[in-house]
Specification:
The structure holds two protein chains of two kinds.
Chain A: E1 4-12, E2 25-28, E3 36-40, E4 45-49, E5 69-74, E6 81-85, E7 95-99, E8 103-112, E9 121-131, E10 136-142, E11 152-157, E12 161-166, E13 169-175, E14 185-188, E15 193-197, E16 202-207, H1 208-217, E17 232-235, E18 240-247, E19 256-262, E20 265-269, E21 275-280, E22 285-293, E23 296-303, E24 307-312, E25 315-321, E26 326-332, E27 340-345, E28 350-355, H2 374-393, H3 395-398, H4 402-405, E29 406-412, E30 417-418, E31 432-442, E32 446-454, E33 459-462, E34 465-471, E35 475-483, E36 493-502, E37 507-515, E38 522-525, E39 533-540, H5 546-549, E40 563-568, E41 573-578, E42 584-589, H6 592-609, E43 614-616, H7 623-665, H8 674-720, H9 727-736, H10 749-762, H11 769-773, H12 786-802, H13 808-823, H14 827-835, H15 842-853, H16 855-861
Parallel strand pairs in A: 1-25
Antiparallel strand pairs in A: 1-28, 2-3, 3-4, 4-5, 6-7, 7-8, 8-9, 10-11, 11-12, 12-13, 14-15, 15-16, 16-17, 18-19, 19-20, 20-21, 22-23, 23-24, 24-25, 26-27, 27-28, 29-31, 30-31, 31-35, 32-34, 32-36, 33-35, 36-37, 38-40, 39-42, 39-43, 40-41, 41-42
Helix pairs in contact in A: 6-8, 7-8, 7-12, 10-12
Chain B: H1 3-12, H2 16-29, H3 34-48, H4 52-55, H5 159-164, H6 169-180, H7 183-196, H8 202-214, H9 218-231, H10 235-247, H11 251-264, H12 269-281, H13 285-298, H14 303-315, H15 319-331, H16 337-349, H17 353-366, H18 370-387, H19 390-403, H20 408-420, H21 424-437, H22 442-454
Classes of the chains: A alpha+beta, B mainly alpha.
Chain lengths: 875, 455
């Protein structure tokens, strides 16, 4: 974020693959009036530039000239740093010190002025060199010990050894105490102190005199660890990028700043280690340079986001964008340009720049907007507005019947295929699946169409939901239905629910049903002679051979047979026997659940041939057989509840332990949490254990649910045959024996069943008037004792064939209905909703179907639970 | 060249990945080299470092487990949690408020969540100088994979031994906290280390406070920071203390701390920013803008301050002045949908109609976030109303609702427009919806009352 951009007027780049660091750039006026730029790369190349900065006629700088580069020297070893000072005894000239990893050399820069315009001859002359015992890190040059007109060199090695050199002599070594990583080292001439940043993130000042005295006391300076007391120290609390020492010599007050660039803040200390000021930097700094103008400290900081920021003390004076990311910045005075910024990048891009004052304003990229023809646009707008207006007002069209607009064709393939989906059946014989094609032919565009296919367990559909959006052409979807468990199937019927949102945003639904082929779940086997459970059906005036009825199981060799055995995935066998020269069929099996499917299939298939056939079932309804399964279901349900309670207990315990753990964790003094951890682990394993058991029991429950559903389906089929004339009562009874077994958390199947049965017994099936007067059930209660339910169950089954229903019940029901309408004022809404069923969740639909099946029953009891699905918010 | 020097140089140049590589190479040869080990640790830490002062999630919400609450029913003006009743109606509409009733700020800060929408929302994203460090949750950093298992087995670290090593302990602490995200072990180290240095190093107190804050032990953290400040004044420490007081909902104490800090660090931008935000939250826009002006004098590139001053002028009926501030932001390169949106609104209200649509066009082009898009359309409806085109305004509001279906002010305005067209029942329905989406918004409640009194 800046208004300005830095303006470059001179630049030079080095060879490829050279590396530079912060110390690689030096700007110094080596025996000259103006500054030289000295760069030294890690690859051992030393370059000295003297930018001429000549401007042409228009006042524009000419940039880099070949003459500007005055020396380029390649060394064998990398150069870590260059420094300059009065490094030759008896000479007032400035000399150049070059630091290699194991060598310190001092050169003098000899400049011979050329006689012609061809330029000057410059050479580096080696004065002396020192071999270093340890790998060097950095060096500092200064008049140590307060010497006048003489500069000495101090080299810091990578492992913390300070070596001092007084010109050609190596004076002494000093081992820095508590040393880990080499940090910046500076010399503060005013106090004759070395400022060192230690690995413990504390700035320390060591007096040169103290260092040299310790040398005298110790015989072996390299390996001994002398005690030294720092002059002062300052805990910085963060790592340091750079330290610079600025002396304001112009003024009388002779101020000194120690400028420290930390990773997050900029600090300025006084010469005795007091904080002068600090700035919290909102960016990552890379490098800095400081100088003083009129006793104000100016600091240039380069941020990682390519910006140069100029601070005067703590105030941001300027900020400018940079073209590249430098790692070192210095200020230089040239003949033509005073105070130019010298920037050096990581890979050797060297630039001299100035802060331009002309703002480089941000220019947004141009937009691609077409020229608008206003007449056309107005016409278009009017048209669009017309469409919008008509779409909102035309509400009557919205309600149009969906039957006309969307045609749904369901096609079930007769030949089962080998199942390719994963299922839970162990034995592979019943490994078939059946393809169901649904063809959607929309007459208009629909916003969204969802096709869901519902089957009863143990069948499974993959995928069970198809979704389309913005559909207006015919399209096909196909799903596969297969057996998921080795259990008996109650019915082969399946439902396809098409939920639609048309393009006015109105939801509708359409339901279709289909029949799966028998061969999907059953296979032919040898018929059994005698079985436990038998059902005899009489088809009046209709006798068809079994071969005709079950063409898929008849073979050519055996075209006429009187018995057929059918085997399901669970291994149960059902047999259909045709009595000779009679219209009696006997269905028999050892497993009661098996009878459901074959009864259903037999009736459907006979009815196909003789649509108006009269079927009769003369024996009593199989109540006791069903009760066996009811008891089983009840027991399993109890077990599930028991495990659920146990799980509740354990998880409460777990949470308690967690809470305790947190409160322990929060205490100021950390204490051992081993015991709580033990408890936590123990409870956790308990939870896992119970969860495993619960899962197993739930699986059991599922199995029993399907078995029970088979039984109830059979019951429904048989009741259908009992010649009950009254459709209302038939529907009522059938809805009680719904094949959907649902065990909710708060309400088991038995609970609902008992209430429904009681209702039947007290109303339509009441034996005496007295029964009717008994207080009706007003709420669902949890069944604790199964025997009552069993009694009711058998009672109802007993009374159904007798048909001694009290006829006046009907009238009463009729009277009741308007009354209940008054009670629930929202019923008018409800009716609307039934027409256009909202696309609700699968669950919502599921439960509403269950509830609506019993709606007529519930009305009597005036149970307000039914209003669950309604949303009175619309009022 | 010495590989150690190279590693140090790479670390300085912020090439942490390469630095880690070289350190690993050296460590293979000399596994016990502490200096290299330390450098590698520092590089790994720096690679994932996030300044927690920038990224702190400072949610002020009711937490039933919060045991640090001072008063359950604070007096007016002493809490950031209770909505203030100050509500001045101006011709440009009241300044929008968040769903909790606080005034909406001019910038999106890491700690302000975008909940609730208001009238004419004026927001600009924070500039890049504000650092992009968004809350990477501490601890996720540890996912960054290392080739052969973790660099340091934290469970095998002898904390009591390293706590006494003052060369290593700070690096190890930062590694534990930022790289591993292991607050508990870090805290244990901090406790041992601060004992080892005899409570003389303020740095350890601050680190201890960081750990306490992470564990929600706010009062203990406050103690530590206060003690550290007594030892060494440091801007960050003051900011931490301010944040703590905001966290325990003591804005007046926080303001007090700000003023103390400004005595030691006069004109410091970061502290003044805290103070300005705080006063803004406390519903004192004049004071807040005064601080923001001071910030701009110190740091003319502070986008947050410029945006907030601009917004202040806008809601003070000086759209021309606001326009100048926003144009400055644009010149600095804040090229965002929000800014163009604000520019468009300023142009609209300062009668520079030729620029209004161009600004909004750009805002729409740049808006990718549906919420921002909804706001732009919402504001465009004002342009349409200003032009007297009610049907266009309705379309704009409908488009706004397409992008953000819970935009309560849009529902409210739609209701007003429909009411003008004579559709009272529809208006009523829209008002109820608006009230449902944002109960704190005063307009729908007021309008509903008016409608009820009419009929």
């Amino acid at each position: 974020m800046s208004l300005f951009k830095i303006r470059q007027f001179w630049s030079s780049t080095c060879e490829e693959n050279e590396n530079f660091d912060q110390n690689s750039l030096m700007v110094a006026s080596v025996n000259s009036q103006f500054d030289y730029i000295i760069t030294s790369s890690h690859n051992g190349v030393l370059r000295i530039f003297k930018p001429s900065c000549e401007s042409n006629e228009n006042g524009i700088f000419r940039g880099f000239q070949p003459n500007d580069s005055i020396i380029e020297k390649i060394f064998d070893t990398p150069i870590l740093q260059t420094a300059c000072g009065k490094l030759l005894s008896g000479s007032q000239e400035t000399h150049l010190a070059v630091l290699h990893p194991r060598l310190l050399t001092v050169y003098s820069l000899i400049c011979k002025t050329g006689k012609t315009d061809h330029g000057n001859e410059v050479d580096l002359q080696l004065l002396y060199e020192h071999k270093l015992h340890r790998s060097a890190a950095n060096c500092v040059v200064g008049p140590f010990g307060g010497s006048k007109n003489r500069d000495f060199i101090c080299v810091q090695s990578l492992d913390g050894l300070l070596s001092f050199f007084e010109h050609e002599n190596q004076v002494f070594h000093f081992n820095l105490p508590d040393f880990l990583l080499p940090g910046p080292l500076c010399y503060l001439s005013r106090n004759d102190c070395f400022i060192h940043f230690g690995s413990d993130w504390i700035i320390r000042a060591y007096r040169y005199k103290a260092l040299s005295e310790i040398r005298d006391e110790n015989s072996d300076p390299i390996y001994s660890k002398p005690k030294i007391f720092s002059e002062w120290d300052y805990s910085l609390g963060e790592s340091v990028m750079d330290i610079q020492i600025i002396n304001d010599s112009d003024n009388n007050n002779k101020e000194t700043w120690i400028v420290i660039l930390g990773e997050k803040n900029l600090f300025s200390l006084s010469a005795n280690g007091r904080l002068k000021f600090m700035i919290k930097l909102g960016f990552c700094p890379l490098c800095m340079d400081s100088y003083v103008i009129e006793s104000n400290l100016f600091t240039l900081i380069i941020s990682e986001t390519n910006h140069l920021l100029v601070y005067e003390n703590t105030t941001l004076k300027w900020s400018a964008r940079l073209e590249f990311l430098p790692i070192s910045i210095k200020r230089a005075f040239f003949e033509q340009v005073k105070g130019a910024l010298v920037l050096l990048s990581d890979e050797g891009r060297l630039e001299c720049s100035y802060l331009g004052t002309e703002p480089s304003l941000f220019v947004a990229p141009p937009m691609h907007v077409q020229e608008i023809n206003f007449d056309d646009a107005e016409k278009q707008l009017l048209e669009l507005e017309k469409i919008i207006a008509s779409s909102n007002s035309n509400d009557s069209r919205v309600q149009k019947n969906i039957e006309e607009e969307l045609e749904v064709i369901v096609n079930v393939s007769a030949e089962p295929e080998i199942c390719t989906f994963q299922h839970n059946i162990k034995n592979a014989t019943n490994n078939y699946m059946c393809k169901v094609d649904v063809k959607l032919i929309p007459k208009i565009t629909f916003q969204e169409i969802q096709v869901s296919i519902a089957v009863q367990r143990p069948l499974k559909v993959v995928p069970n939901i198809h979704f389309f959006s913005n559909i207006n052409v015919a399209s096909n979807v196909s799903s596969y239905i297969f057996l998921d468990m080795a259990a008996d199937v109650s019915s082969l019927k399946f439902e396809i629910i098409v939920s639609v949102i048309n393009n006015f945003g109105v939801p509708c639904t359409k339901i279709k049903s289909g029949m799966l082929p028998l061969s999907l779940v059953l296979e032919k086997c040898h018929p059994e002679k005698d079985n436990k459970h038998k059902i005899t059906l009489v088809f009046h005036d209709a006798s068809i051979t079994l071969a005709l009825l079950f063409p898929e199981f008849s073979t050519e060799e055996q075209s006429i047979f009187n018995a057929i055995g059918l085997k399901s995935a669970s291994g149960n066998v059902g047999t259909i026997l045709l009595a000779k020269s009679s219209e009696k069929y006997r269905l028999q099996s050892d497993n009661f659940t098996m009878l459901s499917l074959i009864t259903e299939q037999l009736i459907i298939r006979v009815k196909k041939h003789y649509p108006n056939v009269k079927i009769s079932f003369n024996s009593s309804l199989p109540g006791n057989e069903i009760l066996v399964f009811v008891q089983k279901h009840f027991k399993t349900q109890q077990k599930v509840k028991e495990f659920q309670n146990l799980l509740l207990l354990f998880s409460t315990q777990f949470r308690l332990i967690q809470k305790r753990l947190i409160s322990k964790y929060r205490t100021k003094t950390p204490i051992s949490l081993k015991f709580l951890e033990l408890l936590l682990n123990d409870t956790y394993s308990d939870i896992l254990d119970v969860t495993g058991k619960l899962e197993k029991e739930l699986e059991n429950l599922q199995k029993i649910q399907t078995d029970l559903s088979c039984c109830l389906h059979l019951l429904n089929e048989l009741i259908q045959l009992l010649n009950i004339n009254d459709d209302d009562i038939l529907n009522m009874i059938k809805s009680v024996y719904s094949t959907e077994i649902i065990d909710l958390d708060s309400q088991a199947w038995e609970d609902i069943m008992d209430v429904s049965l009681c209702f039947l017994l007290r109303t339509v099936m009441a034996k005496t008037e007295k029964d009717k007067l008994r207080a009706p059930h007003t709420c669902f209660e949890e069944i604790k004792d199964i025997s009552k339910l069993e009694k009711h169950f058998l009672q109802v089954l007993e009374r159904i064939p007798k048909q001694n229903f009290l006829k006046e019940m009907e009238n009463q029901l009729d009277e009741d209905e308007p009354a209940s309408d008054k009670l629930h004022g929202t019923d008018s809404f409800e009716d609307e909703k039934n027409e256009t069923k909202p696309i609700g969740s699968q669950y919502g639909e599921f439960s509403s179907r269950l509830l609506s099946a019993r709606k007529s029953l519930m009305r009597r009891h005036k149970i307000n639970d039914l209003q669950l699905n309604e949303d009175p918010k619309d009022e | 060249m010495d590989p150690m020097y190279l590693a140090l140089s790479l670390f300085r140049r912020r090439q942490y990945d390469k630095c880690v590589e070289i350190c690993s190479e050296i460590l293979e040869k000399q596994p016990l080299d502490q200096a290299v080990w330390c450098l590698k640790m520092r590089a790994l830490t720096q690679r994932v470092y996030v300044d927690e002062l920038e990224s702190e999630e400072n949610e002020i919400e009711d937490d039933f487990l919060d045991s640090n609450v001072v008063a359950t029913a604070p007096r007016p003006g002493t809490s950031l949690k209770t909505p203030s009743s100050v509500n001045t109606n101006k011709s440009l509409g009241a300044r929008p408020r968040t769903s909790t009733g606080r005034p909406i700020s001019g910038v999106v800060r890491p700690s302000t969540s975008r909940c609730g929408s208001g009238l004419e929302r004026l927001r600009t994203s924070r500039g890049s100088t504000g650092q992009s460090a968004r809350a990477i949750r501490l601890g996720t950093a540890a996912i960054l994979s290392q080739k052969d298992g973790p660099f340091i087995q934290v469970s095998r670290l002898n904390l009591s031994k390293y706590a006494k090593n003052k060369l290593l302990n700070k690096s190890i602490f930062e590694y534990l906290l930022y790289h591993e995200g292991d607050v508990r072990n870090a805290m244990e180290l901090a406790v041992l280390a601060t004992q080892a240095c005899e409570f003389k190093d303020w740095w350890w107190k601050i680190q201890l406070a960081k750990c306490y804050i992470a564990l929600n032990l706010v009062r203990e953290a406050e103690q530590q920071i206060r003690s550290a400040i007594k030892q060494t004044p440091h801007i960050e420490n003051y900011i931490r203390l301010i944040r703590i007081y905001i966290r325990i909902d003591q804005p007046l104490t926080a303001t007090e701390v700000c003023k103390q800090a400004l005595e030691i660090f006069p004109n410091d931008v970061s502290i003044m920013t805290e103070l300005a935000r705080l006063t803004e939250e406390l519903n004192e826009p004049q004071a807040s803008v005064k601080y923001y002006r001071n910030i701009v004098i110190q740091d003319a590139m502070n986008t947050e301050a410029i945006a907030c001053i601009g917004m202040y002028h806008f809601y003070n009926n000086q759209p021309e002045l606001a326009l100048r501030y926003y144009r400055r932001l644009l010149a600095m390169g804040a090229h965002s949908a929000e800014l163009y949106n604000n520019l468009g609104l300023c142009c609209l209200y300062s009668q520079q109609l030729d620029l209004t649509l161009a600004c909004f066009q750009r805002a729409l082009d740049l808006a990718t976030d549906p919420l921002v898009k909804a706001d732009v359309w919402y504001n465009l409806s004002y342009v349409a109303i200003a032009a007297g085109d009610v049907s266009l305004a309705i379309q704009c509001l409908n488009l706004c609702l397409c992008a953000d279906s819970s935009h309560a002010p849009a529902f409210n305005n739609l209701a007003v427009l429909h009411h003008k067209n004579g559709k009272t029942h529809l208006a009523k329905a829209y008002l109820v919806t608006a009230k449902g989406h944002q109960p704190a918004l005063p307009e729908p409640v007021f309008n509903l009352n008016v409608l009820q009194n009419d009929h």
